[in-house]
Amino acid sequence: MRIRSMMLGAAMALALDAKADEGMWLPSQLPEIAKNLKDAGFRGDPKDLADLTRAPLNAVVRIGGGTGSFVSADGLVVTNHHVAFGVIQYNSKPDRDLITDGYVAADRAGELPANPDYRLRVTVGFDKVTDRVFAGARGKTGKAYYDAVDAASKALVAECETQDGIKCSVANMFYGRDFYLVRQLELRDIRLVYAPPRAIGNYGDDIDNFVWPRHAGDFTILRAYVGKDGKPADFSPDNVPYHPPSHLQIATEGVAEGDFVMLAGYPGITYRHRTAAEFADQIEWRLPTSVAVLKALQDVIEAGGKADKEAGIRYASQLQTLKNGIKRFSGELEGLERSDAVTVRREDEGAMLAWLGTQPEATTLKPQIDQAMALIAQGKDARERDLLVGLLSSQTQLMRGALSVDRLAVERPKSDAERESGYQKRDEELIQGQLKQIQRRYDPRVEKALITSLITRYQMLPDAQRLPEVDKVFGRTATDLARALDRIYGATRFGDEAERTRLFSAAPAEVEKSDDPLLLAARTLRPALLRIENERKTREGDLLRLRPSYMQALIAYRQKQGKAVYPDANSTLRVSYGKVTPLKARDAVTYAPLTTVQGIVEKNTGVIPFDAPKPLLDAIHKGDFAGYVDPKSGAMPVDFLSNLDTTGGNSGSPVLNAKGELVGLNFDSNWEAVSASWMYDPRYKRAIHVDMRYMRWLMDKVYPSPSLLKELGVPAR
Prior knowledge:
This protein is α+β, with helices and mostly antiparallel strands.
């Protein structure tokens, strides 16, 4: 433990040498980089940023699959249109298409409830618990090590969640070197207040995704509600707005090139400290394979939507997620190949290991590093099978629900501590919400086509990768598969919400006796899924035990190089800082850091995805921009570019100026830097943000909501 402590201290010290444009810093690290922050232009006290329970960080929330921030005393939350897209889709139907038309609540009674599994979380505690987690794991290997860490984590979570509305988790830092208990207030009643039309919130869609220059108004405003007692509650008309401990102030002035900016949010995952072999696997197999598989699923949903408008609406959110993932993976692959990432990482790792060989710790660390690398190499054996089986659950609605109900029946007879994570009592409410929302996100023809796409690819795997249970349910040929799906989906009663609710609440023995064909399929698949899960836990347990040696060597080597070390992103609250910065994309191609409404007009074709709404075009033509224009150019801004360090999960993150005021919302990265989740390159890494001046102008002049602007503290002009 002393070695780990010393090395973490060294990592913190290294932060002093960090460049302003790199790093997803833990708030507790920020006082260590106070000089860098001040030199970059921050006007506040960096010590105030170290406490995530104080303003401004306690106004930053995790919402949906991204980030948001409180912007009023009555619980208004601003995030991205695409982060709230599921909420918009959930409230849409053919005769009320909020996706196309947008939505402006006339008053609080008109605010629409989000889908039942949509959650907002505010981090209220972050404490180191490494000793507790390691206490029962020492001396163990494989699945026993994994189980010991898992049991300790569950015990910590159970102790932490005694208070109503509090959700807790244990975060792994530096790949098993340290663990932190994260305590979050979870709010369950979230409502849609303001959403621009699709042709504003997602202007340019997939063509412009991960591309600069951008002209999207990617924002949506929600409101958080609680019970009359002030505690988190399910949706009820009697609930009242939540009063956050603090909220961000929207700036009345914008930013210009060279201005300091800072971002706080919940970045999902980065891989910058992974091994050279993992870099190679990502580039040579995982990215191209994932793109091919997901593209086939995209084609299925698009075909279903063309044949049936209602199916198109039901799958709009899933389609958007698929398209985003496909383009991101494609850009990541291109970027890593352009940077010759495999060679760079292999040479860097080779130099690190050569340096380690000269250090006294080599005799302890090198054998464990060698074991970790051998395990990573073995992970290739069943990777495609595991990818396809995983997608069978994550990319379906009814099948996923049946698998959840079946697994819940297995877990419920156990003590809560022995239940599998994701199926404990604390998780049942979320599972119930997912089962309920199926009604608005499922079409049997589309689901059968999605499964056909996945299982057809699975049926081409070599016999060594095949699972007898999967073959039993779906057969080994295309004809078998079609017959099986027609039989299962033609006779299942699970598509009825009342039946799903009944089975969710039923005793495990009753679920086990069900003769519903979809539940029978889930029950048949169960042994295969459990085997895959146990194989994964065995491998992850050993890697969790062995990777800290790799990280100890890597951190010490980085210290020798004078480079920054911060934990890879893992959905915990992080802060990055930098400046509004142009981009030199390649030879003779340089982009300014600010776009304007003129670009909307220039791109407009009247055809999706460049079909700017008439009210927007009319307002641009009218030119009533007083109070919103960029003082230097005299133009009406839309989006801006910075060198902030971001990744997936940072969508919706508030971008603050030097005074801590909200000037933008992060929503994308540039194509040249999509690969930054694996390799950071300061020449290309840029983040794309909606300019708050554009949001305010839209809410004032185009789709007016004067009462909302007043509540936001920026009254209509």
